[in-house]
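Retry 2 of 3 after timeout on previous attempt. Resubmitting structure tokens to design endpoint.
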């Protein structure tokens, strides 16, 4: 059984070094997972160190408090990646030297890298030389990379191929390779020579989210996440514009990103700007309250290896309408806790949103309860327990590996 969230492990604490190419204060699934995993490990008494690009020109080692827990963060000198609105990257020509220095200072029991691109490459290279146990987790999707490059389309295919070859080299050094869902594991195995990839949920701490089972008083559609191209939010706004005015629906997009102005213009063109709220980057308390207030959560993205935001919505007792793409069907069981639609099909998207917004109250309550039931299997404490076992080289509890029963869309 997993340890209690407030009970430190009774075994000898580990010294764990987590490497990430993207980390707080950046907001994305990989950064959120790394911070929550680290915090859960600290809470259990482990000594956790993070290696990540500096969030500004200031670099060095200091203590940061993330998800309510203090941890040692080694911030590497970084530069802005200007095709991206905020991303910073560690300098690739210094990563071997920096990785060697940090490993020799920390002397970790295990290195767990979250990306193969720069930090994971350096740490895994140097950890192999020192005989340190290596675990790798993949959050990489080529759609997420290509959007923020300046590469012309005719060379993008070659760039993706080279990226997967680099991933194969880094993950081949790991004793254990994981990714958030079985679909994502199959995806990684297909594009690399890595085999035996474990599907382990990123997890969510359901106690931080508040379902509301009182009868709804408005039809509020909410999306939470980065306002970027791969999220396909133009499809959400177009679907929203097709809804029957009698539903009196409103749409709230919680998050920031480079597509915000384009989407505001689209909402104006479609005549729905007065019913669409763009919050920009929001504090965690606001995000959670938005999920509590909502009637339905919408996730049109086609590039989700799991979607922490969708799990947070489900932990808030929301039905979900999502694209039938990548790992979203692991969470959204069609006709049970929400509906799936063919990616890019605006008419079907609008129809499925209408199904939820016009649903009788008793049926809506069943969908809400089913979301809570499904997401319960993704408890963050199970995830932390699983990685503790992996770090120690112990058998992995089957209960925490993500092998859900997926109900296909018709």
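Retry 2 succeeded. Sequence:
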């Amino acid at each position: 059984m997993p340890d209690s969230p407030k009970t430190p492990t009774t075994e000898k604490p580990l010294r764990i070094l987590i490497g990430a190419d993207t980390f707080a204060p950046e907001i994305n699934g990989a950064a959120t997972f790394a911070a929550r995993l680290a915090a859960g490990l600290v809470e259990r008494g482990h000594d956790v160190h993070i290696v990540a690009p500096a969030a500004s020109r200031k670099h060095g080692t200091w203590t940061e408090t993330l998800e309510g827990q203090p941890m040692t963060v080694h911030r590497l000198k970084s530069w802005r990646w200007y095709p991206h609105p905020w991303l910073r990257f560690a300098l690739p020509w210094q990563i071997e030297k920096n990785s060697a220095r940090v490993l020799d200072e920390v002397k970790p029991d295990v290195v767990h890298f979250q990306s193969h691109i720069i930090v994971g490459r350096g740490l895994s290279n140097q950890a192999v030389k020192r005989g340190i146990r290596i675990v790798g987790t993949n959050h990489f999707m080529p759609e997420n990379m290509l959007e923020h490059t300046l590469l012309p389309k005719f060379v993008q295919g070659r760039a993706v191929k080279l990226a997967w070859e680099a991933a194969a080299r880094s993950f081949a050094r790991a004793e254990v390779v994981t990714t958030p869902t079985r679909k994502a594991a199959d995806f990684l195995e297909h594009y690399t020579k890595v085999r035996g990839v474990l599907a382990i949920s990123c997890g969510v701490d359901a106690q931080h989210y508040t379902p509301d089972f009182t009868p709804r008083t408005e039809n509020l559609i909410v999306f939470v996440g980065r306002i970027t191209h791969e999220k396909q939010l133009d499809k959400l706004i177009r679907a929203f514009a097709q809804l029957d005015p009698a539903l009196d629906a409103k749409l709230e997009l919680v998050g920031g990103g480079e597509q915000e102005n384009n989407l505001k213009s689209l909402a104006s063109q479609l005549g729905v700007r007065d019913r669409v709220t763009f919050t920009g980057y929001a504090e965690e308390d606001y995000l959670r309250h938005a999920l509590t207030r909502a009637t339905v959560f919408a996730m049109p993205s086609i590039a989700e290896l799991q979607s922490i935001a969708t799990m947070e919505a489900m932990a808030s007792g929301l039905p979900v309408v999502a694209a039938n793409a990548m790992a979203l069907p692991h969470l959204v069981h069609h006709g049970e806790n929400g509906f799936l639609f063919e990616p890019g099909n605006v008419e079907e998207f609008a129809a499925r949103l209408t199904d939820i917004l016009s649903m009788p109250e008793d049926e809506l309550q069943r969908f809400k309860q089913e979301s809570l039931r499904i997401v319960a299997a993704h408890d963050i404490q199970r995830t932390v327990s699983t990685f503790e076992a992996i770090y120690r080289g112990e058998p992995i509890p089957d209960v925490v590996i993500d092998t859900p029963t997926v109900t296909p869309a018709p």
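Attempt log closed. The longest helix spans residues 153-172.
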